[in-house]
Automatic annotation (TrEMBL):
Keywords: Cell inner membrane, Cell membrane, Chaperone, Lipid degradation, Lipid metabolism, Membrane, Transmembrane, Transmembrane helix. It is a single-pass membrane protein. May be involved in the folding of the extracellular lipase during its passage through the periplasm. Belongs to the lipase chaperone family. It holds the Pfam family Lipase_chap. GO terms for cellular component: plasma membrane. One of its GO terms (molecular function) is unfolded protein binding. One of its GO terms (biological process) is protein folding. It is found in: Cell inner membrane. The lineage of its organism: Bacteria, Pseudomonadati, Pseudomonadota, Gammaproteobacteria, Moraxellales. The keyword Glycosyltransferase does not apply. This is Lipase chaperone. SUPFAM superfamilies: Lipase chaperone-like (SSF158855). The gene is lifO. The keyword Cell inner membrane applies.
Length: 342
């Protein structure tokens, strides 16, 4: 009995000391966080309070694949604390939607709501959540869009999809919201469709297509021109050149097309490149023909190797070209098509 009393006293003393230590410990600055989304996410099953550092790090809103990223929600507000709808708004929505697969839609919606309620106050909070809910409904409906045309390589197919997309947006958003969320995307889609129409127009020559492509490109905003100029011009040059060559067109036609598309200075550079490519192709073909003659001759293997090495040095006078031609040798010996640049 005496031992029992001693243990009781010791237990009480330990509990009191532990309580005193906990009371004296410094506490983190915290913010309140709704329990529902956090618990449902499975990331913080028992936690009802989050530190500022945890909120900044995205806990519990992010999926495992996003754990090393920051939440991409750079939402802009005006002086009245109302949302300014722009491309960043859409980027924020899409950042949460990309978690689909790791989370279901309902969980994503709950997490987004919890995040917005944590970092924004009304009227921005209600405005953001209302737009978010309509955006989710729009994205779900977008998956059901189908074009009547079955030819997915035709401009008509993509134009039909684009028109249905624009009509669908009008069911969920105002004109201001559509411009803010999709204005930049619409510019690119419309440009791409108009470009496809020009390239597919059988009533135009390649030179005429080049001129129209150049005029269409100049209608883009300057920042778009800066980003797309090299890529689009290179692609258009390849396509139109291939079309001319496929129908047996002349070098003069290729030159006129280039002048219309990229101007005289770039045309001169392309012609110099053509000359260099033709010279390379001629030397490679002559070398491979002479090499075949050596390999089928009656010399010993050592003599053949020495003769081929001398032949390679005769046709290709620097180490870079000699290394490059080894690829052509391998393809040629395997019976493949030689990888000449077009």
């Amino acid at each position: 009995m005496q031992k029992y009393k001693i243990w009781m006293v010791l237990s009480i003393v330990i509990i009191c000391v532990a309580g005193l230590i906990f009371w004296l410990m410094p506490q983190d600055k915290t913010i309140k966080q709704p329990v529902g989304p956090a618990a449902a996410s499975g990331l913080l099953p028992q936690q009802t309070v989050l530190t500022q550092a945890q909120v900044k790090a995205g806990i519990p809103y992010l999926s495992p694949s996003q754990k090393d990223t920051e939440i991409n929600c750079q939402l802009r507000l005006d002086s009245s604390n109302r949302l300014i709808i722009n491309e960043q708004t859409r980027n924020c929505f899409e950042y949460f939607i990309t978690q689909y697969g790791e989370k279901n839609i309902e969980q994503i919606k709950l997490d987004f709501k919890s995040y917005i309620q944590t970092v924004h106050k009304d009227p921005a909070q209600s405005q953001i959540l209302g737009l978010w809910n309509r955006y989710i409904d729009y994205r779900i409906a977008l998956g059901d869009l189908q074009a009547s045309s079955t030819d997915r390589d035709s401009t008509q197919y993509y134009r039909a999809i684009f028109n249905k997309m624009k009509n669908l947006r009008q069911q969920f958003f105002s004109a201001y919201e559509i411009e803010g969320l999709f204005g930049t995307e619409n510019i690119y889609h419309q440009y791409t469709l108009d470009r496809m129409d020009i390239l597919d127009d059988k009533n135009l020559s390649e030179s005429e297509k080049a001129q129209k492509l150049k005029e269409l490109f100049k209608q883009l905003p300057q920042d778009w021109q800066d980003n797309l100029e090299q890529l689009n011009k290179l692609e258009d040059l390849r396509k139109l050149t291939a079309d001319i060559q496929a129908r047996g067109g002349s070098n003069d036609e290729i030159r006129q097309m280039r002048l219309n598309l990229v101007g005289p200075e770039a045309t001169q550079r392309l012609e110099r490149l053509d000359t260099e490519r033709d010279d390379w192709k001629s030397r490679v073909n002559q070398y491979l023909s002479a090499r075949d003659h050596i390999k089928t001759g009656g010399m010993s293997e050592a003599a053949k190797d020495q003769a081929i090495q001398q032949l390679r040095q005769q046709y290709f006078n620097n180490a870079q070209e000699q290394l490059r031609v080894e690829t052509f040798e391998t393809v040629h010996d395997q019976g493949g098509k030689l990888p000449f640049a077009n």
